Amino acid sequence: MEELLGRQAPYSAPAEQAVVGSMLIDPRCISEVIDKLRSTDFYIEANRDIFDTIQTMFSYGQVIDPVTVLDQMKVRGVFREASSERYLLELMEVTPTAANIGEYAEIIRNRSLMRNILHVANEISSAVYEGSGKAEDMLELSERLIYALRKDRTVGGLIPISRVIANVYEELSKAAESGGGIPGALTGLTDIDNAIMGLGGGDLILVASRPGMGKTSIALNMAFNVAKTSNKTVAIFSLEMTREQLVKRLLANQGLIDGKKLQKGNLSPEEWKRLSSAASVLTATDIRIDDNSTLSVADMNAQCRRITDLGLVVVDYLQLMQSAGGPGYRTAENRTQAVSDMSRMLKIMAKELNVPVLCLSQLSRANESRQNKRPMLSDLRESGAIEQDADVVIGLYREGYYNNECENPNAAEAIILKNRRGDTKTIDLVWWPEHTTFLSMEKNRDESYE
């Protein structure tokens, strides 16, 4: 488009030549360049071919010099007879030193970003002129494309496996540096973390139960732990409870204060002290709460895109969300389709943001008629395709919910009904009703506040 209009796309031939020339004369700088640039950042095809070849050789630990690079270019089918050899020699001649390679790489990256901005602007312009959707659709497309640029990712398209392998190696290296621990964000419930490998980026995790079973409580437990241990932002979208109600629960939980006493303000001097300490701990985290009950997935996504260091998104709960279908989704059949659409959009949001999305969901009354009332996947209310979209589905069950006279009314179970990261299993927890919180079995109920 730019060339047709007589305008030159932004790029810097001298900077590109300086970078690949530096990689040839001083292989020690290759790792620095690979950390900053990709082959697609180079505008000139010959420079892209040389960079790709050197990057592949570096990954395999091969010796890199003009002779070996030329040989590998022949193997890869990007050797252009004598012109390639002549061009390599010219690059080494015009690059006297590799000392300034960082500055050269920054110039290339900047020009590449400008070209990508132009490309996105053209896509948005074409979509608007074609009139292929509502204004809200165009705004959503614009935000999605620009967000991808900010995160240095592309939207769609075929990606070479070599680049995917590089991403996998980077993830594995980070895992190894952390001591080979759980790769995902930690929920604070050790057995659940071990079973699902933490809350993974791009995962949709569904926590489902009957009303009053404690799904909001366990979600708040997880949200606080992620915010505290990762130092990242946690976004909570509460469609049922107000911000103040959620914060009171968090304060009761962290201060080990009876929730009913907290609501009345009838606290002892020691409890006021613990409340102050809990408030300080919570204030130090970056937890953000939106209690707008009319939110749609698109609204949530738009807000999350503006958060620079997002660690987790919590949605409470799925069936209360506004559907893009509007009033037309009132019948049972249409409502099932609407919920299926929203669950699919939540999964897409998780992948786009590359963060875990923890979504709460109601169970239908189907389990009430069974002798064994433990949740099953088929109990998901208006389930549609929810169980297909979710990477992990956890059903909550407490015998004391149905029978106050049972042997241990505080015993709870987190039943992992679906798990793409491992096996399905039942995990025993302890329900602490006065603090509306769940604890791992190994934790001491009487442990002091930290």
How would you briefly describe this protein structure?
With 450 residues, the chain is α/β, with parallel strands linked by helices. Helix content is 49%, strand content 12%.
CATH architecture of the largest domain: 3-Layer(aba) Sandwich
Give the class-level CATH name of the largest domain.
Answer: Alpha Beta
Strand arrangement within the widest β-sheet reads 3-2-4-5-1-6-7-8-9
Largest sheet: 9 strands, mixed
Q: Please state the structural category.
A: alpha/beta
Over the alpha carbons, how many angstroms does the gyration radius reach? 27 Å
The gross shape turns out to be elongated
Uncertain residue segments: 324-331, 444-450
DSSP helical segment count: 17
Helix content class: 40-55%
CATH topology of the largest domain: Rossmann fold
Fourth CATH level, the homologous superfamily of the largest domain? P-loop containing nucleotide triphosphate hydrolases
Number of domains: 2
Beginning-to-end CA distance, first to last residue = 61 Å
Helix-strand topology string:
HHHHHHHHHEHEHHHEHEHEHEHEEE
Number of strands: 9
Mean pLDDT: 81
Strand content: 5-15%
What does this 3D model show about the protein?
The chain is of the alpha/beta class and 450 residues long. It has two domains: 1-141, DNAb Helicase, Chain A (Orthogonal Bundle), CATH 1.10.860; 182-440, P-loop containing nucleotide triphosphate hydrolases (Rossmann fold), CATH 3.40.50.300. The chain has helices at 13-25, 30-36, 45-59, 66-76, 81-94, 101-130, 135-150, 161-177, 190-196, 215-230, 243-255, 259-264, 269-283, 297-305, 332-353, 386-389, 399-402; strands spanning 204-209, 233-238, 287-290, 310-316, 357-362, 392-397, 411-419, 425-432, 437-440. A nine-stranded mixed beta sheet has the order 3-2-4-5-1-6-7-8-9, sandwiched between helices. The longest helix is centred in the first third of the chain and has 30 residues, at 101-130.
